[in-house]
Amino acid sequence: MQAGNVARKTKVKPNEVAAARLSTGLTQAEFAKALQISARTLQEWEQGRRQPSGAAKALLQIASRHPDIITEEFELAK
By the 8 A CB rule, do 52 and 43 touch? Predict the structure, then answer.
């Protein structure tokens, strides 16, 4: 350990929901507001405890491909 040799490195990939949110640069609360869902629902999706339904999945795909649309929606919702 002192020599800098680590026995194991763990890399955690964010799931698709978290990756979509991170691409927008918004916080969980801001992203949830832009999608018009509760922050708790977003947390459940990001932590893998629940999965988004059909319409929500489509919206998240749009958020992944076009994060500027979501940030624009957030700015309009303020």
Answer: no
**Per-residue pLDDT tens digits for 24-73:** 999 999 999 999 999 999 999 999 999 999 899 999 999 999 999 888 87
Choose which CATH entry (1.10.3470, 1.10.260, 3.40.1710, 2.60.40) describes domain 16-77: 1.10.260
Is residue 18 helix, strand or coil? Answer: helix
CA distances from 60 to 10, 11, 13, 25, 41 (A): 27, 23, 17, 14, 13
* Reported pTM: 0.77
Residue ranges per domain, the chain? Answer: 16-77
Q: Note the pLDDT of residue 72.
A: 85
